[in-house]
Each structure stands twice: as structure tokens, then as C-alpha cells.
Design goal:
By secondary structure, the protein is an alpha/beta fold. Helices cover 27% and strands 17% of the residues. It has two domains: 131 residues, no CATH class; 51 residues, no CATH class. The protein has seven helices and eight strands; from the N terminus they run βαααβββαβαββαβα. The strands form three sheets. Strands 3-4-5-6 form a four-stranded parallel sheet, with helices on one face. The longest helix is centred in the middle third of the chain and has 13 residues. The protein is globular and about 55 Å long.
């Protein structure tokens, strides 16, 4: 198989998880000639060159493990991981199993990742949250009358997010707790 990207369709049913990676897939299509298949079934494991797994197996995906035994040894595996804090025993075990099989690991939390999962530095690549294609933002007009206010979206509990916890009580900060991962795209945008 050449230049075929298989993306697990289940991730795109959860818009908050997958929307930021759409730019990555579009870039692979436009710059390298990949064609994308969004599917959870009918994957030809014998003809895969590259597999990209996102956030697996983490938090709500504990039992989702890449079918490691079905992949050929020469199939490259790229893992994209974030929200790495507080792994349970089961999550830690499953993550190590997937990390061991990954050829490259992309994360926006380089140093914290190595604290939680030491021993993967030779595979680790810094992959910031803000990766996006500029055409999405190119036509935004500059706000000449800005309101001095900060919108903080996400969990702000003290243990894992001490900076968010502190600033959420500042005067010009409006805080919206983490949107539920199971919202539809329309519901997610409305909550914002």
C-alpha cells in the first residue's frame, strides 16, 4: 500500500479530540499525496506502511489498544499522546505496550512525558498543540477594539493545572470548564 492514510473514524465522532489533527491529515494529503480512509473496519493489516494512533490507550480509551499483533514488523507506528498525567496501573501498562511498538512518539509535553514514561527519549518529538494550517486563520480580521478579557477553557483543578487554578480567579478571566468529550461538533461550538 502506498500513500494511504487510515484514520480511525471513531476519533472523528468525538470532535474535541480530533479537530486539531485534521490539519495534520490535510497536510499529509496535500504535501505528500496521501489519500485518507476514515474507517474502524476493513483495515488491510498486511498492506499498512504507517499507522497513526491518537491518545490511545488513555483515560476513557483504556481498553482500546492498537492491534499490535496484527501489524507487520515493517509497519511504522506513530503515536500522538497528550493528557499524560495521573495514569492508572491499567493505563500505564497499556500505554507502555503501545509506546514500545511506536517508532515515533509526538507530544506537546516533552519533559513531563519523560517524567511519567522515562526511556522513550530517542522516539520522542515535540508536537505543539497549536499545529494548524494557516488558511484556517488567514482571513481573520485584526480586532482594533479588544476587550481586556481572557477566556480559559479546560479543566482548572488545582492538582494537575496549578497555573490555570490560580488565574481562573483573576478579575478579567472568564473560565469555562472542560467541554465534555462526547459533545457533537455543534454542541461543542455552542458551549464555547
Amino acid at each position: 500500500m502506498k500513500n494511504r492514510l487510515v484514520v480511525m473514524d471513531s476519533f472523528f465522532k468525538r470532535y474535541t479530540v480530533a479537530s486539531k489533527y485534521k490539519a495534520l491529515f490535510e497536510s499529509l494529503e496535500s504535501n505528500f499525496g496521501f489519500s485518507s480512509q476514515f474507517s474502524d473496519v476493513d483495515i488491510d493489516y498486511d498492506n499498512l506502511d504507517i499507522v497513526i494512533t491518537i491518545k490511545s490507550p488513555q483515560h476513557t480509551n483504556l481498553d482500546y489498544i492498537l492491534d499490535l499483533d496484527k501489524l507487520k514488523d515493517n509497519t511504522k507506528v506513530i503515536g500522538i499522546f497528550h493528557d499524560i498525567h495521573n495514569p492508572t496501573k491499567k493505563m500505564y501498562y497499556n500505554m507502555q505496550r503501545v509506546l514500545d511498538r511506536c517508532d515515533k512518539i509526538l507530544t506537546p509535553y516533552y519533559s513531563m512525558f519523560l517524567l511519567v514514561y522515562p526511556g522513550y527519549e530517542n522516539k520522542l518529538i515535540f508536537f505543539p498543540h497549536y499545529f494548524a494550517i494557516d488558511k484556517w486563520y488567514r482571513d481573520l480580521k485584526f480586532n482594533v477594539n479588544p476587550i481586556e478579557k481572557c477566556l480559559l477553557v479546560g479543566s482548572s483543578e488545582e492538582t494537575n493545572y496549578p497555573i490555570r487554578y490560580k488565574i481562573k480567579y483573576e478579575k478579567n478571566v472568564h473560565c469555562i470548564d472542560r467541554p465534555d468529550y462526547h459533545l457533537s461538533q455543534k454542541q461543542y461550538k455552542k458551549s464555547m
